[in-house]
Amino acid sequence: MFVQIENLKYQYKNSSEPTIKDFSLEMEQGEIVCILGESGSGKSTILRLLAGLETPNKGVISINGKTIINDHQFTEPEKRGVGMVFQDYALFPHMTVAKNVQYGLRKMTRRQKQKRLDEMLSLINLTDYKDRYPFELSGGQQQRVALARALAPAPSLLIFDEPFSNLDANLQVKIRDELRGILKQTGITSIFVTHDQEDAKVLADRIVFIENGVVSRVGPPEEVLGCASLIMWANS
Questions:
Q1: Which among 130, 154, 178 is the end of a domain?
Q2: What is the pLDDT of residue 174?
Q3: Which end of the chain lies in a sparser environment, N or C, as judged by fewer CB atoms within 10 Å?
Q4: Of 100, 126, 154, which closes a domain?
Q5: Residues 16, 115: one domain?
Q6: Hey, what's the torsion of the CAs at 76, 31, 148, 113, to 10 degrees?
Q7: Which SUPFAM superfamilies match (predicted)?
Q8: Number of domains in the chain
Q9: How far is CA 78 from the centre of its chain?
Q10: What is the greatest pairwise CA distance in the chain?
């Protein structure tokens, strides 16, 4: 398996009980998995554990054959090969599109940086926007730049935290279709967290439904979204 997460447990310091109680997941290379759940279910905490922004109380995470966390080992966030697209995109406002995309390419030569930039801008169809600043872009364009910046260093795993929450409904539909196409084109292994069933249905190869820090159901979208508990949740 390309990604292996085993028996993760995490409790915030001021919490009376664990946010993540026992989370396990295996992923094939190139697979897109969506972690679906209500607010407070623990889905964003899982991303923070994967990225190294939090340290689990227990559990093992391995990516691309390398163990990045267990009871005796902690790999620093910058050495994990995990890219993250934030809810608010987190673009640098004082940098152009080109500078934002090239930000994580410090170890490349100038020629290599330019080649990678050209590849990324072509991928997201923003080649003519490289000299613009984030405030000159639409919400959808900013989202695509954030994706290109995360993809540019060629991470082993790409994670998304509610990536469409700042987009209006029409743009949300357009962008998520584009995004699945880009991820499949690049073959990058990806994890999304969302509370939106339609996002999960369109984007995911598999859905992990989480309740109170525990996985309650895993499977293809048509299987997981058809179960009674999810239908009741959607209508509540």
A1: 154
A2: 81
A3: C
A4: 154
A5: no
A6: 70
A7: P-loop containing nucleoside triphosphate hydrolases (SSF52540)
A8: 2
A9: 16
A10: 55
Q: Helix H segments across the chain? A: 43-51, 97-102, 110-123, 139-151, 169-186, 197-203, 221-224, 228-235
Tell me if the pTM is above 0.85: yes
Number of residues that make up the chain: 236
**Shared-domain flag, residues 126 and 222:** no
- How do beta strands 82-85 and 157-161 pair? parallel
Give residue for tokens 């009674």: 228
pLDDT at position 229, please?
52
Same domain, 8 and 75: yes
pLDDT in tens, 55-102: 999 999 999 999 999 999 999 999 999 999 987 888 999 999 999 999
Query: Nearest CA to 6 among 62, 53, 51, 68?
Result: 62
143 is in which domain, residue-wise?
90-154
